[in-house]
Design goal:
Number of helices: 10
Strand content: 5-15%
Largest sheet: 6 strands, parallel
Radius of gyration: 24 Å
Strand order of the largest sheet: 2-1-3-4-5-6
Order of helices and strands: EHEHEHEHEHEHHHHH
Structural class: alpha/beta
Low-confidence stretches: none
Shape: elongated
Mean pLDDT: 82
Number of strands: 6
């Protein structure tokens, strides 16, 4: 990519931030080919252009909810080779996960990172080069969310072993034989697993299925 023109499109409704980013990018050798104030203007521009990079605010007019995220989805569909960097004023874990799941050449940064000129340009370059970029604050939030939401976090090591064998389709007797414990002890572990996973008492077979699903989803 060395000497070629680096074309980039911006979509940000805050005029000062948009012009500030444009100035930074131009000083870094980018050709800012679009300075849109909303997602509709950006998408309209992209119908006849192929910039290497798009920087888009996650919340823009008219509703300031998910316009930028919706635009990023459409851009990824219509311009699969373009890099996309989404900016957000706040950490929004669910939206970030949905965006990052779309693949390479994708980034998610908090707007405060723009103030760090070198870091902002580095993020742009990394996404343009094919990498994914995730804001460090978001990484911390994702780990925290995983710890909070992991349904198996409350299980003891032995209970996890029992649940893993349940996932293999073993009966209580089969689990007891495998772990060299009594069937009564297995039954106690199973009851504890059900209680810790807060599974409704709707029949033992159905609860075992729900427990196994929780196990598989956590892997």
């Amino acid at each position: 990519m060395g000497g070629q023109v680096k074309r980039i499109a911006l979509a940000e409704d805050d005029v000062l931030l948009r012009e500030g980013m444009a100035t930074l990018l131009e000083s870094a050798g980018y050709d800012v080919v679009c300075r849109a104030g909303d997602a509709a203007e950006l998408l309209d521009f992209l119908r006849g252009a192929e910039p290497e990079m798009i920087v888009v605010d996650i919340r823009m007019p008219p509703t300031c909810t998910t316009e930028g995220l919706d635009a990023a989805r459409a851009i990824r569909e219509d311009h699969p080779k373009a890099g996309i960097l989404v900016l957000s004023a706040h950490v929004e874990v669910d939206q970030a996960m949905e965006l990052l799941a779309t693949g390479r050449r994708i980034g998610y940064l908090l707007k405060q990172r723009v103030a760090s000129v070198d870091g902002f340009i580095e993020a742009i370059e990394r996404v343009r080069g094919g990498d994914s970029v995730v804001d460090p604050v978001l990484v911390s939030e994702l780990f925290a969310a995983r710890r909070r939401e992991d349904p198996l976090a409350l299980l003891s090591p032995r209970e996890r072993e029992v649940l893993a064998l349940m996932a293999e389709g073993r009966s209580n007797a089969g689990i007891a034989h495998r772990l060299w414990i009594s069937e009564g002890t297995v039954e106690k572990h199973v009851r504890s697993i059900m209680a810790r996973l807060r599974l409704p008492d709707t029949g033992d077979d159905h609860r075992r299925v729900l427990a196994v699903i929780a196990f598989l989803e956590s892997r």
